């Protein structure tokens, strides 16, 4: 099957069934379409996922009964996305979506697809008016997440929703061990790629428009990497010193691992992750930059199975989280996450944090980080840990005095999409008391 709309529907259906992510499903789907259709496939998958909460409400108003076939329901969402958000002519979008039903072996439903999409077109203004008071419709976020963000951030919630629904910028991290940011900015200009320096990251550049990494000067030679500005703050915040023994826990795909080595090539650095497949990405990034680290495939929550007993000077714990701070880059989070995921994730984070603390030298530093914007995973998590851990001290307030990057919290600091320049991220710099 090489119909991009049919494949997009199949991807969206698998997301709703919690059978993967866009990051894993899209490469599979892209192999099945012609080169000329790949950008359309990506647009349909990312766009439909981004606005699925809103599109599902529209579909509910248009369909007289629940659509039980998940691929058919997904195809309807793909069709509605085209009508609502793309420049594809309406008649072409409807006709191609009807043909996609045949490609999915849903020929019996072509009349339904055609009817629903034409009704959506005819009744667009009426539907918008009827649904405009629904918070899920206005925010394009599932109800539970819309409520959680509003409860956490109040009047800032609307700005966060808008940022989450926008296409993200492409941000680069210049390898300062090989050239300066100004030098690389000049190389970009010579290559006809407009860019601006990041506000907070000394190594960061934001491109005016995304480009293929193959167009970036020196990418294969490790002169530059793709990484959001907020994520670029991790390595400088950890502040590695020459010769130190450092652990990057939950390291994949390796952006922060590589950044640490760019700042201090002379490190005894271990990169740990539980998924072997994801560690392959770490190895690829290390090789491209020409740096090395010890690779450990193991569970951070159970160090007794892999730790050699030698404590670490510093630990970067980029804890598994809801990823609610990077929805603009991963809109499938709106389909994949559920409200009951949050307490489960918080429990896992607490377990890993306590395990990592045992591995840290007295006087050492642990940087706790997530790409979440929910307090249960962030400030509440760290505040509870500090209250229960006599030798733990939060050094983040000192950082905020030196570099006002984020919002001070009960513990740690928070960066928010739309409020700050990068993705949503949380950081808490914890120091272990000396004996």
TrEMBL record:
Superkingdom of source: Bacteria
Keywords: Cytoplasm, Methyltransferase, RNA-binding, rRNA processing, S-adenosyl-L-methionine, Transferase
InterPro entries the UniProt entry points to: MeTrfase_RsmB-F_NOP2_cat (IPR049560), MeTrfase_RsmB-F_NOP2_dom (IPR001678), NusB-like_sf (IPR035926), NusB_RsmB_TIM44 (IPR006027), RCMT (IPR023267), rRNA_ssu_MeTfrase_B (IPR004573), RsmB-like_ferredoxin (IPR054728), RsmB/NOL1/NOP2-like_CS (IPR018314)
PROSITE patterns attached to this UniProt entry: NOL1_NOP2_SUN, SAM_MT_RSMB_NOP
Ranges where the SAM-dependent MTase RsmB/NOP-type domain occurs: 160-433
Binding site for S-adenosyl-L-methionine: 250-256, 273, 299, 318
Chief location of this protein within or outside the cell: cytoplasm
CDD domains: AdoMet_MTases
Catalytic activity from the UniProt record: cytidine(967) in 16S rRNA + S-adenosyl-L-methionine = 5-methylcytidine(967) in 16S rRNA + S-adenosyl-L-homocysteine + H(+)
GO biological process: methylation
This enzyme's EC code(s): 2.1.1.176
Family annotation (Pfam families): Methyltr_RsmB-F (PF01189), NusB (PF01029), RsmF-B_ferredox (PF22458)
Residues the record marks as active site: 371 (nucleophile)
Gene Ontology molecular function: methyltransferase activity
Location of this chain's protein in the cell: Cytoplasm
Family, similarity comment: Belongs to the class I-like SAM-binding methyltransferase superfamily. RsmB/NOP family.
Biological role stated in the UniProt entry: Specifically methylates the cytosine at position 967 (m5C967) of 16S rRNA.
Name of the featured protein: 16S rRNA (cytosine(967)-C(5))-methyltransferase
């Amino acid at each position: 099957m090489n119909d991009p709309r049919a494949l997009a529907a199949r991807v969206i259906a698998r997301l709703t069934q919690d059978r993967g992510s866009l990051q894993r499903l899209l490469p599979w789907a892209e192999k099945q379409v012609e080169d000329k259709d790949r950008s359309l496939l990506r647009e349909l998958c990312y766009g439909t996922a981004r606005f699925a909460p809103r599109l599902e409400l529209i579909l509910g108003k248009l369909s007289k009964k629940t659509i039980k076939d998940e691929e058919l329901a997904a195809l309807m969402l793909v069709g509605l996305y085209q009508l609502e958000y793309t420049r594809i002519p309406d008649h072409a979008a409807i006709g191609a979506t009807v043909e996609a039903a045949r490609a999915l072996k849903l020929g019996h439903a072509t009349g339904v697809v055609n009817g629903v999409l034409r009704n959506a077109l005819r009744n667009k203004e009426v539907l918008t008016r009827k649904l405009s008071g629904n918070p899920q419709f206005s925010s394009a976020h599932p109800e539970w997440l819309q409520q959680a963000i509003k409860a956490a951030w109040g009047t800032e919630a609307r700005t966060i929703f808008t940022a989450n629904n926008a296409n993200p910028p492409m941000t680069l991290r210049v390898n300062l061990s090989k050239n300066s940011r100004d030098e690389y900015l000049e190389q970009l200009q010579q290559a006809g790629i407009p860019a601006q320096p990041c506000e907070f990251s000394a190594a960061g550049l934001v491109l005016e428009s995304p480009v293929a990494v193959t167009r970036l000067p020196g990418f294969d030679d490790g002169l530059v990497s793709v990484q959001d500005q907020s994520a670029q703050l991790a390595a400088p915040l950890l502040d590695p010193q020459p010769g130190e023994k450092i652990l990057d826990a939950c390291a994949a795909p390796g952006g922060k691992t590589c950044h640490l080595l760019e700042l201090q090539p002379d490190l005894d650095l271990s990169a740990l992750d539980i998924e072997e497949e994801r560690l392959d990405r770490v190895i690829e990034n290390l090789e491209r930059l020409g740096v090395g680290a010890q690779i450990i495939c193991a569970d951070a929550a159970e160090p007794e199975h892999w730790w050699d007993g030698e404590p670490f000077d510093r630990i970067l714990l980029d804890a598994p989280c809801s990823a609610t701070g990077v929805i603009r880059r991963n809109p499938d989070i709106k389909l994949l996450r559920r409200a009951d995921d949050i307490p489960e994730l918080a429990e896992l984070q607490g377990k890993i944090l306590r395990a990592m603390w045992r591995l840290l030298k007295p006087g050492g530093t642990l940087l706790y980080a997530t790409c979440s914007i929910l307090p249960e995973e962030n400030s509440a998590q760290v505040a509870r840990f500090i209250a229960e851990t006599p030798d733990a001290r939060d050094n983040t307030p000192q950082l905020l005095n030196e570099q006002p990057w984020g919002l001070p919290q009960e513990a740690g600091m928070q960066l928010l999409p739309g409020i700050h320049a990068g993705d949503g991220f949380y950081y808490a710099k914890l120091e272990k008391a000396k004996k």
